[in-house]
Structures are given as structure tokens and as C-alpha cells.
Structure prediction request, 118 residues.
Amino acid sequence: MGTATVHRIRPPSSTAPDFAHESERRIAELLDFYEIAWEYEPRTFVLETASDGRLRTAFTPDFYLPDHDLYLEVTTLRQSLVTRKNRKVRLLRQTHPDVRVRILYRRDLDRLRITHAA
Prediction:
């Protein structure tokens, strides 16, 4: 798993994470603005294994906020993919009930004006 980098203020570009989507970068900027410490994709959770022990389903939330002990998953995807993410979050809550996780949907990002260029 390795050590995750905790960000408090926007890291220099040489150490900035390679975000999977522009909305993730914007969430990171918002967290930086409010000086909220964050880690990008620091942990993958095993959700389902086959009877022989092989991994069947895993989930890596986008952000972890260590000061709040909270994982955030950002989604701006079409509904069919959102449904899959919702299922994974549901499985995460069942298999790891001590883990706090929230999904930020496109409508949440729109309300924050995260998905629109400034």
C-alpha cells in the first residue's frame, strides 16, 4: 500500500497527483482553498473475493480527508456508471462498516460550480 502523501496546500506541480478527471482536480483545489488535508486514492478496499481467495471486486475512493476520517468519491459519470459506483459504496459500507465514505455527484459539483470553468 505504501505511504500516502497528505496534501494541505496545493502541492508543487512535480508532486501533484495525476487526477483521473478534471472534477477531481477541482475538488482538490477546493480542499486546498479551505486548507483541508487530503490524500488522493490512498487505499483500495477489497469488497468481494472468490471462494479460492482471488479478488472479485475492489474499490478505491478518490480522496481521503485524514482530519475528518472520511473518504470521498467524486462522480460526474452517466447514470449506468453511477449505479455501479453506488453499488461499490454500498458494498464498502457492508464489508467495512467502520469506514466513512460519501459520494459527491455531478449535481453536488454543479452546486459548488466545480464542473464549470471559472
Q: What stands out?
A: The mean pLDDT is 85. The CA atoms of residues 8 and 36 lie 6 Å apart. The longest helix spans residues 79-95.
